[in-house]
Design a protein that fits this description.
With 386 residues, the chain is α/β, with parallel strands linked by helices. It has twelve helices and 14 strands. The strands form two sheets. A nine-stranded mixed β-sheet has the order 13-12-11-10-6-9-8-7-14. The protein has a five-stranded parallel β-sheet with strand order 2-1-3-4-5, sandwiched between helices. The longest helix is centred in the last third of the chain and has 21 residues.
Length: 386
Protein backbone atom coordinates (compact mmCIF):
# COMPACT_ATOMS: atom_id res chain seq x y z
CA UNK A 1 0.00 0.00 0.00
CA UNK A 2 1.21 3.48 -0.81
CA UNK A 3 1.99 5.94 1.95
CA UNK A 4 -0.69 8.50 2.77
CA UNK A 5 0.33 12.05 1.96
CA UNK A 6 0.12 14.46 4.91
CA UNK A 7 -0.12 18.24 4.98
CA UNK A 8 0.25 20.31 8.12
CA UNK A 9 -1.12 23.65 9.30
CA UNK A 10 0.99 25.17 12.07
CA UNK A 11 3.90 23.40 13.73
CA UNK A 12 6.69 25.51 12.26
CA UNK A 13 10.11 26.15 13.74
CA UNK A 14 9.91 26.68 17.52
CA UNK A 15 6.54 24.97 17.91
CA UNK A 16 6.32 22.05 20.36
CA UNK A 17 3.36 19.95 19.30
CA UNK A 18 4.05 20.06 15.54
CA UNK A 19 7.25 18.06 15.94
CA UNK A 20 5.40 15.55 18.14
CA UNK A 21 2.73 15.06 15.47
CA UNK A 22 5.31 14.61 12.72
CA UNK A 23 7.31 12.08 14.73
CA UNK A 24 4.18 10.10 15.59
CA UNK A 25 2.85 10.23 12.03
CA UNK A 26 6.07 8.94 10.50
CA UNK A 27 6.72 6.19 13.05
CA UNK A 28 4.95 3.38 11.19
CA UNK A 29 6.15 4.24 7.69
CA UNK A 30 2.59 4.67 6.44
CA UNK A 31 2.68 8.47 6.08
CA UNK A 32 4.87 11.03 4.34
CA UNK A 33 4.83 14.78 4.91
CA UNK A 34 4.40 16.46 1.51
CA UNK A 35 3.26 20.02 2.21
CA UNK A 36 2.23 22.55 4.80
CA UNK A 37 1.40 26.07 5.89
CA UNK A 38 3.64 26.04 8.93
CA UNK A 39 3.24 29.64 10.06
CA UNK A 40 0.99 32.65 9.55
CA UNK A 41 4.17 34.37 8.37
CA UNK A 42 4.82 33.32 4.75
CA UNK A 43 8.62 33.47 5.02
CA UNK A 44 8.68 31.47 8.26
CA UNK A 45 6.39 28.89 6.69
CA UNK A 46 8.77 28.57 3.73
CA UNK A 47 11.85 28.30 5.95
CA UNK A 48 10.20 25.74 8.25
CA UNK A 49 9.07 23.59 5.34
CA UNK A 50 12.47 23.63 3.66
CA UNK A 51 14.11 22.51 6.92
CA UNK A 52 11.71 19.58 6.86
CA UNK A 53 12.92 18.64 3.38
CA UNK A 54 10.00 20.03 1.39
CA UNK A 55 10.27 21.88 -1.90
CA UNK A 56 9.37 25.57 -1.82
CA UNK A 57 6.28 25.09 -4.02
CA UNK A 58 4.71 22.87 -1.34
CA UNK A 59 5.36 25.35 1.51
CA UNK A 60 2.32 27.60 1.48
CA UNK A 61 1.84 31.15 2.75
CA UNK A 62 -1.57 30.39 4.29
CA UNK A 63 -3.91 27.51 4.95
CA UNK A 64 -6.29 28.91 2.32
CA UNK A 65 -3.52 28.61 -0.27
CA UNK A 66 -2.69 25.14 1.00
CA UNK A 67 -6.17 23.75 0.44
CA UNK A 68 -6.82 25.60 -2.81
CA UNK A 69 -3.55 24.67 -4.50
CA UNK A 70 -3.37 21.11 -3.14
CA UNK A 71 -6.93 20.42 -4.36
CA UNK A 72 -5.85 21.54 -7.84
CA UNK A 73 -3.04 18.96 -8.02
CA UNK A 74 -3.51 15.55 -9.68
CA UNK A 75 -5.00 12.91 -7.35
CA UNK A 76 -1.73 10.99 -7.21
CA UNK A 77 0.17 14.04 -5.90
CA UNK A 78 -2.12 16.02 -3.62
CA UNK A 79 -2.20 15.42 0.11
CA UNK A 80 -4.68 12.90 1.54
CA UNK A 81 -5.16 14.64 4.88
CA UNK A 82 -4.13 17.61 6.98
CA UNK A 83 -2.81 17.68 10.52
CA UNK A 84 -3.90 20.80 12.46
CA UNK A 85 -1.41 21.88 15.13
CA UNK A 86 -2.31 25.54 15.67
CA UNK A 87 -3.53 27.43 18.75
CA UNK A 88 -7.17 26.67 19.63
CA UNK A 89 -8.83 29.62 17.88
CA UNK A 90 -7.72 28.30 14.48
CA UNK A 91 -8.83 24.69 14.88
CA UNK A 92 -12.34 25.26 13.57
CA UNK A 93 -11.66 27.54 10.56
CA UNK A 94 -8.81 25.31 9.37
CA UNK A 95 -10.81 22.08 9.80
CA UNK A 96 -13.82 23.65 8.07
CA UNK A 97 -11.71 24.79 5.11
CA UNK A 98 -10.06 21.35 4.85
CA UNK A 99 -13.34 19.44 4.86
CA UNK A 100 -14.91 21.80 2.32
CA UNK A 101 -11.87 21.25 0.06
CA UNK A 102 -12.29 17.47 0.37
CA UNK A 103 -9.46 16.62 2.77
CA UNK A 104 -9.49 14.33 5.81
CA UNK A 105 -8.52 15.96 9.10
CA UNK A 106 -6.60 15.03 12.23
CA UNK A 107 -6.49 17.83 14.80
CA UNK A 108 -4.86 18.61 18.08
CA UNK A 109 -7.33 19.07 20.92
CA UNK A 110 -9.60 20.75 21.88
CA UNK A 111 -11.55 20.36 18.66
CA UNK A 112 -12.58 24.00 18.47
CA UNK A 113 -12.62 27.36 20.24
CA UNK A 114 -16.20 26.90 21.50
CA UNK A 115 -19.03 24.39 21.79
CA UNK A 116 -20.94 26.30 19.10
CA UNK A 117 -18.08 25.75 16.67
CA UNK A 118 -17.78 22.08 17.69
CA UNK A 119 -21.45 21.45 16.91
CA UNK A 120 -21.09 23.15 13.53
CA UNK A 121 -17.97 21.12 12.81
CA UNK A 122 -19.82 17.91 13.70
CA UNK A 123 -22.42 18.68 11.03
CA UNK A 124 -19.67 19.37 8.49
CA UNK A 125 -17.86 16.11 9.27
CA UNK A 126 -21.04 14.05 9.01
CA UNK A 127 -22.12 15.63 5.72
CA UNK A 128 -18.63 15.32 4.20
CA UNK A 129 -18.23 11.57 4.87
CA UNK A 130 -14.54 12.29 5.40
CA UNK A 131 -12.47 11.12 8.37
CA UNK A 132 -11.98 13.52 11.29
CA UNK A 133 -9.86 12.53 14.30
CA UNK A 134 -8.79 14.27 17.49
CA UNK A 135 -5.50 13.53 19.24
CA UNK A 136 -6.55 12.63 22.77
CA UNK A 137 -3.14 11.05 23.12
CA UNK A 138 -3.55 9.09 26.31
CA UNK A 139 -6.14 6.71 24.87
CA UNK A 140 -3.31 5.37 22.70
CA UNK A 141 -1.39 3.73 25.57
CA UNK A 142 -1.63 -0.10 25.56
CA UNK A 143 -2.48 -0.35 29.27
CA UNK A 144 -5.14 2.35 29.03
CA UNK A 145 -6.78 0.10 26.46
CA UNK A 146 -6.32 -2.86 28.80
CA UNK A 147 -7.98 -0.89 31.61
CA UNK A 148 -10.93 -0.16 29.34
CA UNK A 149 -11.20 -3.85 28.48
CA UNK A 150 -11.17 -4.89 32.16
CA UNK A 151 -13.98 -2.42 32.91
CA UNK A 152 -15.96 -3.62 29.89
CA UNK A 153 -15.62 -7.25 30.99
CA UNK A 154 -16.99 -6.32 34.45
CA UNK A 155 -13.77 -7.32 36.22
CA UNK A 156 -14.34 -4.42 38.62
CA UNK A 157 -18.10 -4.83 38.95
CA UNK A 158 -20.12 -1.65 38.70
CA UNK A 159 -17.93 1.47 38.77
CA UNK A 160 -18.54 3.58 41.87
CA UNK A 161 -15.80 6.22 41.93
CA UNK A 162 -13.27 7.74 39.51
CA UNK A 163 -10.31 9.88 40.56
CA UNK A 164 -8.30 11.42 37.73
CA UNK A 165 -5.46 13.92 38.14
CA UNK A 166 -3.38 15.87 35.66
CA UNK A 167 -0.83 18.08 37.38
CA UNK A 168 1.92 20.22 35.86
CA UNK A 169 4.07 23.00 37.30
CA UNK A 170 5.23 24.91 34.24
CA UNK A 171 3.00 27.97 34.79
CA UNK A 172 4.07 28.45 38.43
CA UNK A 173 6.48 31.20 37.38
CA UNK A 174 4.32 34.28 36.93
CA UNK A 175 6.84 35.84 34.55
CA UNK A 176 5.83 34.28 31.23
CA UNK A 177 7.33 37.01 29.05
CA UNK A 178 8.86 35.41 25.98
CA UNK A 179 7.11 32.08 26.61
CA UNK A 180 5.18 31.47 23.40
CA UNK A 181 3.24 28.51 24.79
CA UNK A 182 2.11 30.42 27.87
CA UNK A 183 1.24 33.54 25.87
CA UNK A 184 -1.43 31.96 23.69
CA UNK A 185 -2.76 29.54 26.31
CA UNK A 186 -3.42 32.34 28.81
CA UNK A 187 -5.02 34.58 26.19
CA UNK A 188 -8.83 34.23 25.88
CA UNK A 189 -8.62 35.36 22.25
CA UNK A 190 -6.51 32.36 21.23
CA UNK A 191 -7.18 29.77 23.95
CA UNK A 192 -10.91 30.16 24.59
CA UNK A 193 -12.74 30.28 27.91
CA UNK A 194 -10.15 28.22 29.79
CA UNK A 195 -6.42 27.63 29.97
CA UNK A 196 -5.88 24.74 32.39
CA UNK A 197 -9.19 22.92 31.90
CA UNK A 198 -9.10 23.52 28.14
CA UNK A 199 -5.51 22.32 27.86
CA UNK A 200 -5.17 19.36 30.23
CA UNK A 201 -8.43 19.04 32.19
CA UNK A 202 -10.20 17.99 29.01
CA UNK A 203 -7.60 15.22 28.55
CA UNK A 204 -8.35 13.93 32.06
CA UNK A 205 -12.10 13.98 31.41
CA UNK A 206 -11.67 12.15 28.11
CA UNK A 207 -9.46 9.51 29.75
CA UNK A 208 -12.07 8.84 32.46
CA UNK A 209 -14.88 8.53 29.93
CA UNK A 210 -12.80 6.30 27.64
CA UNK A 211 -11.68 3.80 30.27
CA UNK A 212 -15.07 3.57 31.95
CA UNK A 213 -17.12 3.71 28.72
CA UNK A 214 -19.26 6.26 30.52
CA UNK A 215 -20.14 9.92 30.17
CA UNK A 216 -19.74 12.79 32.62
CA UNK A 217 -23.20 14.29 33.02
CA UNK A 218 -22.91 16.90 35.81
CA UNK A 219 -20.09 18.99 37.24
CA UNK A 220 -19.34 21.18 40.25
CA UNK A 221 -16.13 23.16 39.84
CA UNK A 222 -13.64 25.56 41.41
CA UNK A 223 -11.18 27.26 39.05
CA UNK A 224 -8.38 29.57 40.11
CA UNK A 225 -5.41 31.58 38.86
CA UNK A 226 -2.06 32.06 40.56
CA UNK A 227 -2.19 35.78 39.83
CA UNK A 228 -5.06 38.21 39.34
CA UNK A 229 -3.40 39.50 36.15
CA UNK A 230 -4.12 36.16 34.47
CA UNK A 231 -7.37 36.19 32.55
CA UNK A 232 -7.77 32.42 32.49
CA UNK A 233 -7.51 29.57 35.00
CA UNK A 234 -4.25 27.75 35.69
CA UNK A 235 -5.69 25.38 38.33
CA UNK A 236 -8.99 23.63 38.94
CA UNK A 237 -10.92 20.98 40.85
CA UNK A 238 -14.06 19.34 39.48
CA UNK A 239 -16.54 17.03 41.17
CA UNK A 240 -18.57 15.07 38.66
CA UNK A 241 -21.33 12.50 38.19
CA UNK A 242 -21.59 9.99 35.33
CA UNK A 243 -24.45 8.53 33.33
CA UNK A 244 -23.88 5.08 34.88
CA UNK A 245 -24.05 6.36 38.44
CA UNK A 246 -20.39 6.81 39.38
CA UNK A 247 -19.07 9.87 41.20
CA UNK A 248 -15.70 11.39 40.52
CA UNK A 249 -13.02 13.95 41.24
CA UNK A 250 -10.93 15.59 38.53
CA UNK A 251 -7.86 17.63 39.50
CA UNK A 252 -6.02 19.68 36.89
CA UNK A 253 -3.23 22.13 37.61
CA UNK A 254 -0.43 23.93 35.82
CA UNK A 255 0.91 25.58 38.99
CA UNK A 256 1.69 22.46 41.05
CA UNK A 257 5.32 23.13 41.92
CA UNK A 258 7.65 20.30 40.97
CA UNK A 259 5.15 18.39 38.86
CA UNK A 260 6.16 17.51 35.30
CA UNK A 261 3.30 15.78 33.51
CA UNK A 262 1.62 13.87 36.30
CA UNK A 263 -1.41 12.17 34.77
CA UNK A 264 -2.96 9.44 36.92
CA UNK A 265 -6.34 7.71 37.00
CA UNK A 266 -7.85 5.43 39.62
CA UNK A 267 -11.12 3.60 38.99
CA UNK A 268 -12.94 1.98 41.90
CA UNK A 269 -15.58 -0.70 41.32
CA UNK A 270 -17.65 -2.95 43.56
CA UNK A 271 -15.12 -5.79 43.49
CA UNK A 272 -11.79 -4.33 42.33
CA UNK A 273 -9.95 -1.15 41.37
CA UNK A 274 -7.49 0.01 38.70
CA UNK A 275 -4.58 2.44 38.97
CA UNK A 276 -2.62 3.77 35.95
CA UNK A 277 0.04 6.47 36.08
CA UNK A 278 1.64 8.03 33.01
CA UNK A 279 5.01 8.29 34.77
CA UNK A 280 4.98 4.45 34.72
CA UNK A 281 2.88 3.83 31.59
CA UNK A 282 3.87 0.19 31.18
CA UNK A 283 2.34 -0.76 34.55
CA UNK A 284 -1.35 -1.08 35.41
CA UNK A 285 -2.38 -2.12 38.92
CA UNK A 286 -5.45 -4.30 39.35
CA UNK A 287 -6.50 -4.61 43.00
CA UNK A 288 -9.26 -7.15 43.82
CA UNK A 289 -11.34 -6.77 46.97
CA UNK A 290 -10.31 -10.09 48.55
CA UNK A 291 -6.98 -10.93 46.94
CA UNK A 292 -3.48 -9.61 46.38
CA UNK A 293 -2.87 -6.76 43.95
CA UNK A 294 -1.85 -7.76 40.43
CA UNK A 295 0.72 -5.83 38.40
CA UNK A 296 -0.17 -5.91 34.69
CA UNK A 297 2.70 -5.09 32.34
CA UNK A 298 2.77 -4.03 28.70
CA UNK A 299 3.70 -6.96 26.47
CA UNK A 300 3.52 -9.56 29.26
CA UNK A 301 0.93 -12.31 29.37
CA UNK A 302 -2.38 -12.41 27.59
CA UNK A 303 -3.70 -8.89 27.18
CA UNK A 304 -6.75 -7.70 25.28
CA UNK A 305 -6.68 -7.57 21.49
CA UNK A 306 -6.71 -3.76 21.60
CA UNK A 307 -3.81 -3.55 24.08
CA UNK A 308 -1.82 -6.06 22.04
CA UNK A 309 -2.40 -4.16 18.79
CA UNK A 310 -1.16 -0.97 20.48
CA UNK A 311 2.04 -2.61 21.79
CA UNK A 312 5.06 -2.02 19.58
CA UNK A 313 8.08 -3.58 21.33
CA UNK A 314 8.84 -6.72 23.37
CA UNK A 315 8.27 -6.63 27.12
CA UNK A 316 10.74 -4.52 29.06
CA UNK A 317 11.29 -1.97 26.30
CA UNK A 318 9.66 1.25 27.53
CA UNK A 319 6.86 2.60 25.38
CA UNK A 320 5.59 6.07 26.06
CA UNK A 321 4.05 9.28 24.81
CA UNK A 322 5.32 9.17 21.23
CA UNK A 323 4.23 5.58 20.74
CA UNK A 324 0.78 6.34 22.18
CA UNK A 325 0.53 9.32 19.84
CA UNK A 326 1.60 7.11 16.92
CA UNK A 327 -1.16 4.64 17.79
CA UNK A 328 -3.71 7.41 17.18
CA UNK A 329 -2.18 8.12 13.78
CA UNK A 330 -2.22 4.38 13.08
CA UNK A 331 -5.96 4.31 13.80
CA UNK A 332 -6.55 7.42 11.71
CA UNK A 333 -4.62 5.97 8.74
CA UNK A 334 -6.65 2.76 8.98
CA UNK A 335 -9.88 4.76 8.86
CA UNK A 336 -8.70 6.80 5.86
CA UNK A 337 -7.70 3.62 4.01
CA UNK A 338 -11.14 2.18 4.81
CA UNK A 339 -12.64 5.25 3.13
CA UNK A 340 -10.31 5.14 0.13
CA UNK A 341 -10.40 1.48 -0.85
CA UNK A 342 -12.45 -0.32 1.82
CA UNK A 343 -9.36 -1.85 3.45
CA UNK A 344 -10.66 -3.28 6.75
CA UNK A 345 -9.26 -1.99 10.03
CA UNK A 346 -6.48 -4.32 11.28
CA UNK A 347 -7.39 -6.64 14.15
CA UNK A 348 -7.50 -4.82 17.47
CA UNK A 349 -7.08 -1.34 15.96
CA UNK A 350 -9.79 0.97 17.29
CA UNK A 351 -11.12 4.05 15.60
CA UNK A 352 -9.39 7.25 16.68
CA UNK A 353 -11.14 9.79 18.93
CA UNK A 354 -13.79 11.48 16.79
CA UNK A 355 -15.70 14.72 16.45
CA UNK A 356 -18.18 13.30 18.99
CA UNK A 357 -15.32 13.29 21.51
CA UNK A 358 -14.54 16.83 20.43
CA UNK A 359 -18.10 17.98 21.11
CA UNK A 360 -18.07 16.32 24.52
CA UNK A 361 -14.73 17.94 25.30
CA UNK A 362 -15.95 21.43 24.48
CA UNK A 363 -19.17 20.83 26.44
CA UNK A 364 -17.08 19.74 29.44
CA UNK A 365 -14.83 22.82 29.27
CA UNK A 366 -17.69 25.30 28.96
CA UNK A 367 -19.77 23.57 31.65
CA UNK A 368 -16.87 23.60 34.11
CA UNK A 369 -16.28 27.32 33.49
CA UNK A 370 -20.00 28.07 33.91
CA UNK A 371 -20.19 26.01 37.10
CA UNK A 372 -17.25 27.91 38.56
CA UNK A 373 -19.11 31.20 38.07
CA UNK A 374 -22.31 29.94 39.68
CA UNK A 375 -23.48 29.45 43.25
CA UNK A 376 -25.45 26.40 42.16
CA UNK A 377 -23.84 23.12 43.14
CA UNK A 378 -24.45 20.93 40.08
CA UNK A 379 -24.38 21.94 36.44
CA UNK A 380 -25.47 19.51 33.72
CA UNK A 381 -23.17 19.13 30.73
CA UNK A 382 -25.14 20.35 27.73
CA UNK A 383 -24.33 19.03 24.28
CA UNK A 384 -26.31 21.84 22.67
CA UNK A 385 -26.57 25.61 22.60
CA UNK A 386 -29.62 27.13 24.29
Amino acid sequence: MRKLRMGMVGGGEGAFIGAIHRTAALMDGQIELVCGAFSSDAQRSLESGKKLGLTSNRCYASYDDLFKLEAALPADQRMDFVSIVTPNHLHFPVAKAALEAGFNVISDKPATFSLKEALELKELVESSELVYALTHTYTGYPLVKEARDLVARKKLGAIKKIVVEYSQGWLTDLDTKGNKQAAWRLNPQTSGVSCCMGDIGVHAANLAEYICEDEITDVCSLLDSADTSRLLDDDGTVLFKTAKGASGVLLASQISVGEENNLRIRVYGETASLDWHQHEPNTLWFRPLDDSAVMIRTGVGSLSEQATAATRTPAGHPEGYLEAFANLYQSFVAQVRLNIDQTPLPAGVERAPSIADGVRGMAFIESVVSANKSDRKWHPIKLHID
